[in-house]
From TrEMBL:
UniProt cross-references to CDD domains, sorted A to Z: SDR_c
Domain of life: Bacteria
Protein name: SDR family oxidoreductase
Family: Belongs to the short-chain dehydrogenases/reductases (SDR) family.
Family matches, as Gene3D superfamilies: NAD(P)-binding Rossmann-like Domain
InterPro entries from the UniProt entry: NAD(P)-bd_dom_sf, Sc_DH/Rdtase_CS, SDR_fam
MF terms in GO: oxidoreductase activity
Keywords: Oxidoreductase
């Protein structure tokens, strides 16, 4: 993988950090993009002999997101891999009570961020091909009470992923998504109650590294494109009501 270059968003912590470290372990140079400081992850990569570029960016700003992808490609001399992963949960409220500003903020970060980054990445990958993995969620497949903004954004990411996949399949670019169940990160602190954990047949949340493993596989799986892959310990496979 030496010489390969990746762009990862939401890379300061959680799943994005695990993806960046997984890619670096394979010798991929990684641009770590986040609205927060991702230099800790970059230092870990460099301490292990890898290459990293820190990009401070709010992906909900389309110009800034485009600029960040362009800088990563310029730094690396091209772009082979991308993981559009930055996301926010929104608040917990039923639809009738859900505030406009929060609803659209969640769309701008989760969907708008993936869209702006994906568009810029595709423009670079057209030169030599590439692979993208977007971070969707189990909430891309089903409703979750009191989480309408988040669920709507993740359903939309699944649709965007499939559409880009069919548009670019013949041009050497694959676009897939991971759909994690519960993952032990800051995003779900306070949201992950016992019954949610118990709904996972695996009986526990995933570690971020387990999602990163699936991202790595999708980035390298030839002929796999347009897939939204559950990484959820069996959550979506379970027949409702059966223990
Ligand atoms: N943790 C879970 O259980 C779970 C389940 C399914 C899907 N996901 C998805 O995984 C992705 C990563 O979440 P996580 O669990 O690692 O959460 P996290 O909160 O630990 O990390 C999210 C990262 O994204 C960054 N970020 C947020 N908004 C941003 C913005 N506007 N611009 C740039 N960076 C921004 C944050 O600074 C943070 O570093 C999200 O898309 C989330 O929806 C998480």
């Amino acid at each position: 993988m030496s010489g390969r270059v990746a762009f990862v968003t939401g890379a300061a912590r959680g799943i994005g950090a695990a993806v960046a470290l997984r890619l670096a372990r394979e010798g991929v140079a990684v641009a770590v993009a986040d609205r927060e400081d991702a230099s800790g992850i970059a230092e870990s990569i460099e301490e292990s002999g890898g290459r990293a570029l820190v990009l401070r960016v709010d992906v909900s700003d389309p110009d800034a997101a485009t600029c960040a992808v362009d800088r990563a490609a310029e730094w690396g001399g091209g772009l082979d891999f991308a993981c559009n992963n930055a996301g926010v949960p929104g608040i917990r409220a039923e639809v009738a009570d859900y505030p406009d500003d929060v609803f659209w903020r969640v769309q701008r970060v989760n969907l708008g961020g993936v869209f702006a980054c994906l568009r810029a990445e595709l423009r670079h990958m057209l030169a030599a091909g590439g692979a993208v993995v977007n971070t969707a969620s189990g909430a891309a497949f089903a409703g979750v009470p009191s989480s309408s903004a988040y669920v709507a954004s993740k359903h939309a990411i699944a649709g965007l992923t499939k559409t880009a996949a069919v548009e670019y399949a013949a041009r050497g670019i694959r676009v897939n998504a991971v759909a994690p169940g519960l993952v032990r990160t800051r995003l779900v602190e306070g949201l992950a109650d016992e019954s949610f954990v118990a709904a996972h047949p695996a009986g526990r949340p995933a570690e971020p590294e387990e999602v990163a493993e699936a991202v790595w596989w999708l980035l390298n799986a030839p002929f796999v494109t347009g897939v939204v892959l559950p990484v959820d310990g069996g959550l979506l496979a379970r027949v409702p009501g059966l223990s």
